[in-house]
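User: Okay, second chain of the day. Same drill as before: sequence in, C-alpha coordinates out.
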Amino acid sequence: MFRRKHFLFGLLMILILSALVLSGCGSKKGGTKDSGDNNDPVPIEFNTESFEGTTWESSGTVSFPLITVNISEIIADASTPASAFYTGSVDCASFPGPIDITEEDITLIGGKLICLLGVEAGGTKGISFSVYATNDDGDAIGINGFIHENNLNTVEVHILTIDYADEEKTDFYYDEEESSETIVLTKQVPV
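Assistant: Same drill. C-alpha coordinates below.
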Protein backbone atom coordinates (compact mmCIF):
# COMPACT_ATOMS: atom_id res chain seq x y z
CA MET A 1 0.00 0.00 0.00
CA PHE A 2 2.86 2.38 0.91
CA ARG A 3 4.44 1.86 -2.50
CA ARG A 4 1.18 2.45 -4.36
CA LYS A 5 0.90 5.83 -2.59
CA HIS A 6 4.37 6.77 -3.87
CA PHE A 7 3.43 5.63 -7.36
CA LEU A 8 0.25 7.71 -7.23
CA PHE A 9 2.22 10.67 -5.85
CA GLY A 10 4.55 10.50 -8.85
CA LEU A 11 1.58 10.33 -11.17
CA LEU A 12 0.09 13.37 -9.45
CA MET A 13 3.34 15.28 -10.01
CA ILE A 14 3.22 14.64 -13.76
CA LEU A 15 -0.40 15.80 -13.78
CA ILE A 16 0.58 19.04 -12.09
CA LEU A 17 3.52 19.66 -14.44
CA SER A 18 1.35 18.91 -17.48
CA ALA A 19 -1.32 21.31 -16.22
CA LEU A 20 1.31 24.02 -15.78
CA VAL A 21 2.53 23.56 -19.33
CA LEU A 22 -0.95 23.55 -20.80
CA SER A 23 -2.00 26.61 -18.80
CA GLY A 24 0.98 28.64 -19.98
CA CYS A 25 2.66 29.20 -16.63
CA GLY A 26 5.79 30.47 -18.40
CA SER A 27 4.32 33.96 -18.89
CA LYS A 28 4.06 36.92 -16.57
CA LYS A 29 1.21 39.46 -16.61
CA GLY A 30 2.99 41.68 -19.10
CA GLY A 31 3.38 38.82 -21.55
CA THR A 32 7.14 38.52 -21.11
CA LYS A 33 8.62 35.09 -20.75
CA ASP A 34 9.84 34.15 -17.28
CA SER A 35 13.56 33.46 -17.43
CA GLY A 36 13.48 30.75 -14.78
CA ASP A 37 16.05 32.52 -12.57
CA ASN A 38 14.08 31.71 -9.42
CA ASN A 39 13.35 28.20 -8.16
CA ASP A 40 9.87 27.98 -9.72
CA PRO A 41 9.90 25.52 -12.63
CA VAL A 42 9.22 27.08 -16.01
CA PRO A 43 8.38 24.98 -19.09
CA ILE A 44 10.93 25.36 -21.88
CA GLU A 45 10.97 24.12 -25.44
CA PHE A 46 13.20 21.21 -26.45
CA ASN A 47 13.59 19.01 -29.53
CA THR A 48 10.78 16.56 -28.78
CA GLU A 49 11.33 14.68 -32.05
CA SER A 50 14.93 13.81 -31.17
CA PHE A 51 13.65 11.29 -28.60
CA GLU A 52 11.61 9.29 -31.12
CA GLY A 53 13.09 5.84 -31.75
CA THR A 54 15.35 5.89 -28.69
CA THR A 55 15.99 3.16 -26.13
CA TRP A 56 16.96 3.82 -22.51
CA GLU A 57 18.32 1.07 -20.27
CA SER A 58 19.36 0.72 -16.64
CA SER A 59 22.32 -1.41 -15.67
CA GLY A 60 20.33 -3.59 -13.27
CA THR A 61 21.96 -4.80 -10.06
CA VAL A 62 21.26 -7.16 -7.21
CA SER A 63 19.13 -4.38 -5.70
CA PHE A 64 16.90 -3.73 -8.72
CA PRO A 65 16.12 -5.44 -12.04
CA LEU A 66 17.17 -4.39 -15.53
CA ILE A 67 14.72 -1.84 -16.98
CA THR A 68 14.38 -0.85 -20.63
CA VAL A 69 12.25 2.02 -21.96
CA ASN A 70 11.64 2.22 -25.71
CA ILE A 71 10.32 5.56 -26.96
CA SER A 72 8.65 5.11 -30.34
CA GLU A 73 6.63 8.03 -31.73
CA ILE A 74 5.29 11.38 -30.55
CA ILE A 75 1.56 11.60 -30.04
CA ALA A 76 1.05 14.91 -31.83
CA ASP A 77 -2.41 15.67 -30.43
CA ALA A 78 -1.10 15.49 -26.85
CA SER A 79 2.16 17.38 -27.28
CA THR A 80 3.50 20.94 -27.24
CA PRO A 81 6.97 22.38 -27.97
CA ALA A 82 7.72 22.05 -24.22
CA SER A 83 6.21 18.61 -23.60
CA ALA A 84 5.51 15.40 -25.46
CA PHE A 85 3.71 12.14 -24.91
CA TYR A 86 5.06 9.12 -26.76
CA THR A 87 4.09 5.59 -27.69
CA GLY A 88 6.57 2.87 -26.82
CA SER A 89 7.15 0.20 -24.23
CA VAL A 90 8.74 -0.44 -20.87
CA ASP A 91 10.29 -3.74 -19.86
CA CYS A 92 11.32 -4.82 -16.40
CA ALA A 93 13.39 -8.02 -16.15
CA SER A 94 11.16 -9.28 -13.34
CA PHE A 95 7.95 -8.89 -15.41
CA PRO A 96 6.74 -11.60 -17.81
CA GLY A 97 7.36 -9.32 -20.81
CA PRO A 98 7.36 -5.73 -22.04
CA ILE A 99 4.38 -3.45 -21.47
CA ASP A 100 3.32 -1.71 -24.67
CA ILE A 101 2.16 1.89 -24.45
CA THR A 102 -0.11 2.90 -27.33
CA GLU A 103 -1.84 6.18 -28.06
CA GLU A 104 -5.10 4.71 -26.74
CA ASP A 105 -3.41 3.68 -23.47
CA ILE A 106 -2.28 7.16 -22.54
CA THR A 107 -4.39 8.68 -19.80
CA LEU A 108 -3.09 10.67 -16.88
CA ILE A 109 -5.07 8.74 -14.28
CA GLY A 110 -4.83 4.97 -14.20
CA GLY A 111 -3.32 4.71 -17.65
CA LYS A 112 0.07 4.20 -19.20
CA LEU A 113 2.33 6.98 -20.38
CA ILE A 114 5.74 8.10 -21.50
CA CYS A 115 6.02 11.87 -21.04
CA LEU A 116 8.93 14.28 -21.42
CA LEU A 117 8.68 17.87 -20.21
CA GLY A 118 11.26 20.61 -20.84
CA VAL A 119 11.81 22.57 -17.64
CA GLU A 120 14.07 25.24 -16.17
CA ALA A 121 14.32 25.87 -12.44
CA GLY A 122 16.95 27.73 -10.50
CA GLY A 123 19.09 28.14 -13.60
CA THR A 124 19.11 24.40 -14.34
CA LYS A 125 17.66 23.35 -17.69
CA GLY A 126 16.67 19.87 -18.66
CA ILE A 127 13.92 17.41 -19.42
CA SER A 128 11.68 15.68 -16.92
CA PHE A 129 11.36 11.98 -17.85
CA SER A 130 8.26 10.10 -16.65
CA VAL A 131 7.07 6.58 -17.43
CA TYR A 132 4.08 4.78 -15.88
CA ALA A 133 2.69 1.43 -16.95
CA THR A 134 0.72 -1.52 -15.60
CA ASN A 135 0.68 -4.95 -17.25
CA ASP A 136 -2.30 -7.28 -17.58
CA ASP A 137 -1.28 -9.07 -14.36
CA GLY A 138 -1.51 -5.81 -12.40
CA ASP A 139 2.25 -5.34 -11.98
CA ALA A 140 3.11 -1.63 -12.18
CA ILE A 141 6.25 0.37 -12.82
CA GLY A 142 6.80 4.11 -12.37
CA ILE A 143 9.91 6.09 -13.26
CA ASN A 144 10.52 9.78 -12.55
CA GLY A 145 13.85 11.17 -13.64
CA PHE A 146 15.68 14.10 -15.16
CA ILE A 147 17.87 14.59 -18.24
CA HIS A 148 20.30 17.52 -17.83
CA GLU A 149 20.81 19.71 -20.90
CA ASN A 150 24.56 19.04 -20.80
CA ASN A 151 24.10 15.23 -20.80
CA LEU A 152 21.21 14.27 -23.06
CA ASN A 153 22.21 10.58 -23.01
CA THR A 154 21.50 9.89 -19.33
CA VAL A 155 18.35 9.93 -17.21
CA GLU A 156 19.09 10.43 -13.52
CA VAL A 157 16.32 8.46 -11.83
CA HIS A 158 14.82 10.28 -8.85
CA ILE A 159 12.02 7.83 -8.04
CA LEU A 160 11.49 4.27 -9.25
CA THR A 161 8.63 2.05 -8.12
CA ILE A 162 7.99 -1.55 -9.06
CA ASP A 163 4.75 -2.76 -7.55
CA TYR A 164 3.85 -6.43 -8.01
CA ALA A 165 0.24 -7.62 -7.96
CA ASP A 166 1.48 -10.89 -6.41
CA GLU A 167 1.69 -10.13 -2.68
CA GLU A 168 4.40 -12.81 -2.29
CA LYS A 169 6.81 -10.79 -4.43
CA THR A 170 8.73 -7.96 -2.81
CA ASP A 171 7.84 -4.54 -4.20
CA PHE A 172 10.69 -2.18 -5.01
CA TYR A 173 10.84 1.49 -4.14
CA TYR A 174 13.81 3.74 -4.87
CA ASP A 175 14.15 7.40 -3.89
CA GLU A 176 17.50 8.99 -4.68
CA GLU A 177 17.31 11.05 -1.49
CA GLU A 178 16.94 7.92 0.66
CA SER A 179 19.45 5.65 -1.07
CA SER A 180 23.22 5.47 -1.32
CA GLU A 181 22.77 3.80 -4.71
CA THR A 182 22.37 5.75 -7.95
CA ILE A 183 20.08 4.56 -10.73
CA VAL A 184 20.46 5.90 -14.25
CA LEU A 185 18.95 5.03 -17.59
CA THR A 186 21.45 5.33 -20.43
CA LYS A 187 20.52 6.04 -24.02
CA GLN A 188 21.50 3.02 -26.10
CA VAL A 189 23.35 3.45 -29.37
CA PRO A 190 21.63 1.58 -32.22
CA VAL A 191 23.74 -1.17 -33.79
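The radius of gyration is 16 Å.

User: Thanks, on to the next one.
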